[in-house]
């Protein structure tokens, strides 16, 4: 709120400076016809003083109308009446200062219009000129303030959307992490029942993977290289359990510092094991190919699967990851091929065109 107020007054200060310069230019141009005998230096000096004096009428008028329009809790008809009364009062003050103070004191002559003496303090012509001068200023300041408020509202909406997006992504990650842990602990449980010698090694690997999930994955983005290392650790855990598993893993990364949202790529690997490799009756296989070239990531996974998978296989991991991709990389391409004995996924992410989260 404080920063919004500071921004408001900076914008308004800039407006008054620019408006003052504009009025000086217009009045100085017009003074050639009103005071043709005055030197231009004198006319310019008088114009500076005249427009500075008018600001003492215009600034209170502008903020009185803004206050009535924005702050006073009145019915529209009463607001209109109030604003009309304020404008009439401002016109009278404008005329009084012009006729009795500004022209006599600054120019040393009686107020003149078009080179002729004015007929008095107020008449239709001079009142209309004062009214138009003030209304022109009011229109400008209201235009500036309405535009500023629209920009503030747009920023607030954008911030709310960003906060909502962050909350949704956090919720999705909270769903993913327990899901991953549950699957991996099931693997270790199976090994423990068999009293496998590799169980301690798998626990150490799990500790490394969970450290990544808890600390690294808490960041909004992480380097692709670190994310790939986590995938390798995960596969290493699975290879210890699935003795008949054949893994072909290739990578080609041309930019090690490229950032990606964590826990996206590994979910496809997890699903490949849970809904593919673990249900394959014969020799299981999984092929992973990750390529990053010129800011475009191509992620290919192919894994074996049972020809008639269990009807109640959960797809929560894939469902969540689809939602994350929609939020973070709306222009991504995801191809899913479900064949008789294999499952193929191809994901393409163009990092040149992503949302900033």
UniProtKB/TrEMBL annotation:
<feature type="transmembrane region" description="Helical">
    <location>
        <begin position="12"/>
        <end position="30"/>
    </location>
</feature>
<keyword id="KW-0812">Transmembrane</keyword>
<feature type="domain" description="Signal transduction histidine kinase internal region">
    <location>
        <begin position="168"/>
        <end position="243"/>
    </location>
</feature>
<protein>
    <submittedName>
        <fullName>Histidine kinase</fullName>
    </submittedName>
</protein>
<keyword id="KW-0808">Transferase</keyword>
<keyword id="KW-0472">Membrane</keyword>
<dbReference type="InterPro" id="IPR036890">
    <property type="entry name" value="HATPase_C_sf"/>
</dbReference>
<dbReference type="GO" id="GO:0016301">
    <property type="term" value="F:kinase activity"/>
</dbReference>
<feature type="transmembrane region" description="Helical">
    <location>
        <begin position="50"/>
        <end position="68"/>
    </location>
</feature>
<dbReference type="InterPro" id="IPR010559">
    <property type="entry name" value="Sig_transdc_His_kin_internal"/>
</dbReference>
<feature type="transmembrane region" description="Helical">
    <location>
        <begin position="122"/>
        <end position="144"/>
    </location>
</feature>
<keyword id="KW-1133">Transmembrane helix</keyword>
<feature type="transmembrane region" description="Helical">
    <location>
        <begin position="80"/>
        <end position="102"/>
    </location>
</feature>
<keyword id="KW-0418">Kinase</keyword>
<dbReference type="Pfam" id="PF06580">
    <property type="entry name" value="His_kinase"/>
</dbReference>
<dbReference type="InterPro" id="IPR050640">
    <property type="entry name" value="Bact_2-comp_sensor_kinase"/>
</dbReference>
């Amino acid at each position: 709120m404080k920063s919004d107020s500071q921004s408001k007054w900076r914008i308004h200060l800039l407006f008054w400076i620019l408006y003052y310069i504009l009025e000086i230019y217009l009045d100085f141009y017009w003074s050639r016809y009103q005071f043709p005998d005055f030197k231009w230096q004198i006319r310019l000096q008088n114009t500076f003083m005249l427009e500075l004096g008018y600001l003492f009428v215009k600034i209170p008028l502008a903020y009185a109308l803004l206050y009535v329009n924005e702050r006073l809790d009145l019915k529209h008809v009463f607001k209109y009446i109030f604003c009309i009364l304020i404008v009439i009062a401002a016109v009278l003050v404008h005329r009084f200062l012009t006729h009795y103070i500004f022209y006599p004191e600054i120019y040393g002559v009686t107020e003149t219009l078009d080179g002729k003496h004015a007929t008095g303090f107020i008449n239709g012509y001079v009142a209309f000129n004062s009214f138009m001068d003030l209304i022109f200023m009011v229109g400008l300041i209201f235009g500036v303030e309405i535009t500023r408020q629209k920009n503030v509202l747009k920023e607030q909406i954008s911030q709310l959307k960003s906060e909502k997006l962050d909350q949704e992504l956090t919720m999705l990650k909270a769903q993913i992490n327990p899901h991953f842990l549950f699957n991996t602990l099931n693997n270790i449980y199976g090994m423990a029942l068999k009293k496998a010698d590799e169980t301690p090694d798998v626990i150490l690997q799990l500790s490394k993977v969970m450290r990544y999930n808890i600390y690294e994955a808490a960041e909004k983005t992480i380097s692709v290289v670190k994310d790939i290392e986590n995938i390798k650790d995960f596969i290493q855990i699975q290879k210890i359990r699935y003795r008949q598993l054949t893994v072909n893993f290739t990578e080609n990364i041309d930019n090690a510092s490229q950032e990606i949202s964590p826990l996206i790529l590994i979910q496809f690997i997890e699903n490949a094991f849970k809904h593919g490799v673990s249900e394959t009756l014969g020799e299981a296989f999984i092929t992973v190919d990750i390529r990053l070239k010129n800011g475009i990531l191509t992620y290919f996974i192919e894994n074996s699967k049972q020809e008639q998978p269990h009807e109640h296989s959960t797809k929560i991991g894939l469902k969540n990851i689809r939602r994350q991709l929609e939020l973070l990389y709306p222009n991504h391409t995801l191809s899913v091929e479900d064949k008789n004995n294999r499952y193929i996924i191809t994901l393409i992410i163009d990092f040149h065109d992503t949302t900033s989260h």
